Amino acid sequence: MQTAAAVADFRTYPLISALAGVQVLEDQIRVRWADGRVSPFHHQWLRDNCPCPECVYNVTREQVLEIVDVDENLRAISARIDQGFLSVEWSGGHHSQYDPGWLRAHAYDDDSRAERKSAKPKSKLWDNRFELPVFDYAAVMEDPKALLKWLLALRDSGLTQIRGVPTEPGSLALIAKRISFIRESNFGVLFNVQSKANADSNAYTAFNLPLHSDLPTRELQPGLQFLHCLVNDADGGESIFVDGFAIANALRTEDPEAFRALCEIPVEFRNKDRHSDYRRLAPIIALDALGEVAEIRMANFLRGPFEAPVEQMPLLYRAYRRFIAMTREDRFRLVKRLNPGELWCFDNRRTLHARNAFDPTSGARHFQGCYIDRDELLSRILVLQR
Amino acid sequence: MQTAAAVADFRTYPLISALAGVQVLEDQIRVRWADGRVSPFHHQWLRDNCPCPECVYNVTREQVLEIVDVDENLRAISARIDQGFLSVEWSGGHHSQYDPGWLRAHAYDDDSRAERKSAKPKSKLWDNRFELPVFDYAAVMEDPKALLKWLLALRDSGLTQIRGVPTEPGSLALIAKRISFIRESNFGVLFNVQSKANADSNAYTAFNLPLHSDLPTRELQPGLQFLHCLVNDADGGESIFVDGFAIANALRTEDPEAFRALCEIPVEFRNKDRHSDYRRLAPIIALDALGEVAEIRMANFLRGPFEAPVEQMPLLYRAYRRFIAMTREDRFRLVKRLNPGELWCFDNRRTLHARNAFDPTSGARHFQGCYIDRDELLSRILVLQR
């Protein structure tokens, strides 16, 4: 049993509880469910969500109705339960019918909202005891279930490794495209991480790189970063990872004032060469609408001079020093050497990465990398879960 | 006269005012300029911004020093003016020297900050009397000055037209790449806007499309949108534009409560087909760090059911209706028919666009479109301005 709206969504809405009673009030319809829950639905809301073919175009499954074309004082003339559906007659003549599964899934009484909030996926924080989720290249390439498992680990833990990847240059694109198209940047579609004489970033030297996110100079930092090892004969160059969300949450507990400063005082990051000049002013820690840590923006070597009011400057330095000091604490750090045929895939806005210095005279070292955004990861997960 | 730091920036810092006096205090150095301004610089800040080759790698021009490696209680032992430069001896032995032009450009006393804030480019709001900035394809392709003029109009007004563009499919990519690489989406690198039988969006029907931004279902909506007309023989299909920033600012004055609701209550936008399922919860109006309107997110046909607390729902509907009603007011609307060889380029996060219904039986209509992000626009402008 599903209405056009349920189909439109490419989702089905199981019947959680049947409609048991309906009451028309001044500006809303009050629905009572068989399990006792009561959900108010405003007349405007119900009319806005009418799933009939006049209101929703059934080919694109997109709304054609614009609520502003409906009378602001629209009222339900009558509402009843009809074969399990909520059936409403509107002043002015329109008729609407709502699937009870769909209606329950979109109810906005406090209980229903709390229920949906608690069902949302949560980040699993980790430290140096993290059991790295490792996946097999062939399985991920062929089996949609293995693919989904990998993507869920990426979403929830933000750090994964794939083994058994071919070591021909460009192979990375094949596995990236199992998720989606690649996000291009001024460094290309695939970028080569090698020590270069004329480096345009410290990433392309043999230096150690402190813990950082890539492209903090952009309004939207890339969501996923891939690093694929083709050759690794040089001494040194181990990868280091920390869970930036775990550090931010620890800071929130251990030094709330420093945490707030990093959430509130914007800092400029910049990256420039002969052909580009990227600059972005943003706080180091970003929170989502619910106040949870949603993003870390950090790369000391791409940071501009702090530009805060004079009286905030000592606090900003104290907070910044503290955060960097925490990224160096053993309790958070995972250190691993990547071998040819292995790749890292991690949430670039959460999992900070670093590299130990390596000795370019001791052997060759060649990694390739690319980016994909969180939007594409989440879309792919939803499609695989259908 | 410029130090390594000034070179690192690819910018030069003219001498605005000479250093006239230097005083070392407990945690800062107080600089007096020849024009009377006084700028405090904290010891931590100065040490952090030391431009010497030990602290900044001169090939990549990126910082190697991490301030956390410097003593938290670092103090200047002495500071003096040396051949116009600020010269500082640090406890622990390091020596730093700062170009007075660079130092003035980064001073963070109140006057210097206010001066820089007021020098930032500001949006020029427009209404139905807007004199559309029109540019010539050949000039923009060949002349960097014409290119810069176009990009500044895009940045400041958010709506431009180019004429004389070849009408071969794919030509759009040539002009887009004058700015940067193109941002791909699930609709492709270049997308074709044509009426299709099996449309996966109302954009690909012959319906009228209400005023909207593209891809409000993504965390970062595309910054620039191009729409290039190859064929336009069908009756109807005129383009309509409004300055979403102008409408948001008018709403802010005329109905502050509605404005706040659209800034604060997040709304879900979604777009799904057999291969993708994009969802994004975000407010319709986003403000920047200074409280200025920075983004409009709006597409009624891609909006999901509102999910706000019961007591907020009437206000949300009132605010939403009011905003949509304003987009329909003549005072804001610019209506123009696009001819073959012309293209629109506009700020997709500011300038809402719409299309009148057209009659696909009356003739062919074929547009191509693509996206580029604001980051790339701003980078290109900075490089052209060097």
UniProtKB/TrEMBL annotation, chains A, B:
Record GO terms (molecular function): 2-oxoglutarate-dependent dioxygenase activity; iron ion binding
Any one biological process term the GO annotation gives: carnitine biosynthetic process
Pfam families: GBBH-like_N (PF06155), TauD (PF02668)
InterPro entries, per database record: AlphaKG_dependent_hydroxylases, GBBH-like, GBBH-like_N, GBBH-like_N_sf, TauD-like_sf, TauD/TfdA-like
Keywords assigned: Dioxygenase, Iron, Metal-binding, Oxidoreductase
Start and end residues of each TauD/TfdA-like domain: 134-371
Cofactor(s) needed for function: L-ascorbate; Fe(2+)
Gamma-butyrobetaine hydroxylase-like N-terminal domain location: 26-104
Family: Belongs to the gamma-BBH/TMLD family.
This protein's name: Gamma-butyrobetaine dioxygenase
